[in-house]
Every structure is written in structure tokens, then in C-alpha cells.
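seq as requested:
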Amino acid sequence: MESYGLIWLTCDVSVMLNPTSERDVWLEILVRELPDERIYLWPDVADPDSVEFAVFWHHDPADLLRYPKLRTILSVSAGVEQFLGGVYPEVPIVRLSDPAMAAEMAAYAVHWVVHFHRRMATYLELQSVSEWRPIRTVDAHGFPVGILGYGVMGRTVGEALTRLGYPLGAWTRSGGQDADVTHFRGSDGLDQMLSTSAAVINILPLTPYTEGLINADRFAQFRRGALYMSMGRGGTTVEADLLAALDRGPLGTAVLDVTAAEPLPTGSPLWNHPRVRITPHASGFTRARTAAPLVAANIRRVRRGEQPFPLYDPLRGY
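C-alpha cells:
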């Protein structure tokens, strides 16, 4: 890993930019935010020898070998599983932590928690037969929600739910201390949170530790009829075990914004399962309007000799 010392800006440095969407908007914003940098929109990199920063989500690691001065990789996604495979240059990797994306994910989570807690699907069925029948459910305080992973995304989701009165539990590897959150850690803590939550929201990153973490043994600990929502990375859930837990209990419903293979194959039984809801990795988007200024700010930090954040830690896997 590079040690960030003061580097004087010279005129022969540049940024290689390869976002997955809104390419022209990314280019426009970075040009405005970084007037002293040359921004090359890949693959039109006129001077590879000048590239010191690479901004992308997925990019061929072999192409990065063309840039001998490369000193920092900046991801345009919160996920980092793409860096677990392939041989990348040994330079710092900076993850994207965008509050706007976190807010979108919080809205998504709140929607589905309220949808199932308040039995909105039943109201649609009643409407179809012209039946006016209020359904009195438990109030929010009787519908505890557990969150797997309590980083920036998880905390934003949790804060949105607690403002609505839902009791909140959070499971992480190291635990935590928050006045309005019951924190759990370790294997026993995970089982305890699963067994007491009416809804479980999985926002875990995909790491060697979390891959396949939510499996048959874990599903067996769920509260009967619980909602399971997966909006972190699909590889943290064993989908065959998920289907078994839906068919034989105790799981009530699953909302999957992420799946192990994306796009979800057309032959997957998840598509047609009556108690599964699928969305196409759409709970929160990287949007150039908010993300590009954050990337630019990290490049300026490096230029000032400061450490960018949040840095990817390969030992922790995120």
C-alpha cells in the first residue's frame, strides 16, 4: 500500500475514467471539479504514462498495467468484490460511500418493511373483490427489525426505521454501541438476532467471511413467518437453502434485490416463487451527480498528501 505523502501537482498527470453509466455526466463533473487534471474517458486514453488515478467499477486488471504511474484506484460502487479476483496493481483502492445512495437504499428497505408489516398485499387482494376490510396489525414497536451489516448503508437504513418506531437490532463482526440499537456479534449473537426479528435486512458485503453465511443453519433460526430482505450482495445467501426455508419454514417471505448470479437466470425458481419478490439490484444507484464530487474530493485529498476514504482493506475484505 502506498504511503500518502505530499506530491506536487505537475501538468503531466491525468485520470482514467470508466464508469458503468452516465459516462458523459461523470466526465463533465470531474472536468469541472478537477480543473488541473486531464480526464480521459476510457478507452480514449491518449497518454497512458500520465495516468495516476483510475476511476471505475469493473475494469480489466490487465489494462491497468498500461499506467506505470498509477497510484490510486477509486471505485464508483460501494461493493469491492470485483477486487477479490484478478491481479490488480498494488495501489490503494478507495470505495464509494455516497450518502445519497444510502438514502435510496433506506427508502427501499422502509417500503418493503411497511409493505409486509402493514399487509399491503392483502389490501390489493381485497380491492380486487371490492371488499372494504381494515386489517389491524401490531404497531411498529411489535415488529422488530434486524440488520446484517451496520456500516454507512446499514446505519442509514436503521436510522430511517427507528424514526418510524421499529425496534432495531444490528449484527456485525465487532459489535457496536448505539443508544437506539441492540447490537449483536459473533455466531451466537447472529442466531439470537435472527430468532427475535420479524424482518431481517441483509446489507453485508461479499467477503470470504460472509460468502454463504445465510444458509440452512441460519434460516432454521429465523422467527416463523419472518421477512428476509437481501440488498447487499447475493453471494452471502445460499439460494437453495432460502427456497427450502420458504417451502418448509420458518421463513415467510423474501425480497431479493441481489442474487448470486446477476442477472438472475431465467430458469431460476426464485422468479416464480409465490413468496419471493425480485428487483434487479435497484435498491440504490450510483448517480454521477452525487458520486462524482465525492471521487473528486478523494483525488484532491491525495494531491494534498492526505489519505482518501473509505479505503478498501483486503484483510477484512471490504
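The CA atoms of residues 49 and 68 lie 6 Å apart.
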